């Protein structure tokens, strides 16, 4: 930026995440990769991201909080594609996962799966919840967009069994080849996601009812705990939150923005 300033060029960055400090509020840590950022302007998603920037000793001249650009009307109108199903939006639930590294391992670092926020068992139990969900809510359809390729996921027997059972219901549609999450959630009434993808925040800003499903209760000290009914810690609580969000008025979403 010192060099750019000499030619009167201003650097601007958009941070496309809610923040790295959302998993456990007890931790006192910073993000080395984002340390000492020095831009003319930085656009951040929310207060947690602003707090993280301060911990990272951010030196940028201007820090501004804005909603995700993917929630803008322009992007949403562009994203509203026909997904090829004959089901009313009212009866569709869009479901998103966090990443899961099940691709063929090329080195020891990949073998340790260090980039997986949620374990393989979290992913399996997450899928099993929706098996039960579809049996209870026989009028609902699931639009499923994983953050992994299905061809790699089914190499794990537990994942394959769960996915096969969901597909066999006839009300579970896979979209692992669609790049934008908005293309999927714009066709649904409610968004349910694993901890802690950006999709829930994105969808809430777009006016969609959304919550996180921490099926194994691993993130009890998350930043998002400060918001009411935003995280389900168990199967029982998941069904309770679904009922609450399903009956919630859109005007009630204001407290989450």
Please, could you describe this protein's structure?
Helices cover 32% and strands 16% of the residues. By secondary structure, it is an alpha/beta fold. It has a 6-stranded parallel beta sheet, with helices on both faces. A 3-stranded parallel beta sheet has the order 1-2-3. Helix 2 links the parallel strand 2 and strand 3. The two termini are 33 Å apart. Residues 108-113 have low confidence and may be disordered.
Please render the helix and strand layout as text.
Elements: H1 2-6, E1 12-14, E2 41-44, H2 47-55, E3 62-65, H3 73-79, E4 92-99, H4 108-111, H5 120-136, E5 141-147, H6 150-153, H7 157-168, E6 172-174, H8 181-185, E7 190-193, H9 199-205, E8 209-213, E9 231-232, H10 235-247
Parallel strand pairs: 1-2, 2-3, 4-5, 4-7, 5-6, 7-8, 8-9
Helix pairs in contact: 5-7
What is the residue-averaged pLDDT? 85
Q: Care to count the β-strands?
A: 9
What's the order of the H and E elements? HEEHEHEHHEHHEHEHEEH
- Rounded Rg: 19 Å
Q: Given the structure, what is the number of helices? A: 10
Question: Beta-strand level of the residues, as a percent range?
Answer: 15-25%
- What topology, given as strand order, has the largest sheet? 6-5-4-7-8-9
Gap from first CA to last CA: 33 Å
Shape: globular
Characterize the largest beta sheet: strand count, sense, and whether it forms a barrel.
Answer: 6 strands, parallel
